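To whoever picks this up:

The nightly regression suite flagged Probable membrane transporter protein as changed. Nothing in the input moved, so I suspect the structure step. Input below, exactly as stored in the fixture:
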Amino acid sequence: MDSNILVLTTAFFLIALIYASVGFGGGSSYLALLAQPLFMLTPEVIRPTALLCNVIVVTGGALIFYREKQIVWKEVWPFLVASIPLAYLGGVWKLKDDTFFIILGVTLFIASVLLWIQPEEIPTDKRKHNTTPSNILLGGGIGFLSGLVSIGGGIFLSPILHLLRWGDVRRISALASLFILVNSVSGLAGQFSQGVPDIQLRFLVPLLLAVGVGGQIGSRLGAQRFNPIYIKRITAVLILLASINILRDHL
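Regenerated output under the current build:
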């Protein structure tokens, strides 16, 4: 295993562990890392790799939330009905390399801000009721962006739902996990409709194994060992630095 793959495998394991502990897939950080000039990867490799890792990490979490009855279909369908086809459309849309990296850099910058300002908890008596049309629009917009840059979308949806006081932390995490899963699969389908990317298995398989193990550990340790607000703010700083580095190289 060469040094670059070893670095990526170690980093992906830690990213999956940390993100799974707060209900995310880690797509934003996978993208931020893969997009660094050191690794010399193209968008054709970066995009599907990040989404495949997302799917591996959030599948288990989404199943757990479903078994715990935290996913209520009459509540979550408005976020999914437009996001799934629009994530597919975003996956189909092929961007020039510089355009992709600029959009990615801006996306990561916004994600870092949203993560930083996300409140820790919303009191039950202060929650607001959101309308179905607004939830459809919100899900569709984030879904399209998810497919375009290959980010699951939970890192946007979760902070926004907290700010809108949509529900408690557990219910929002459940929706975010499902949202990330379906949009990652839809975005991948869109990308694969344009041809299967040429990704070497010796590059991809270690990363998928790393996030699989890290995600399982993180999902089990998160609620007991980690303070979610500190994890999210540390992650926000790391994503911010990565976004600045990406934009500096491509603007």
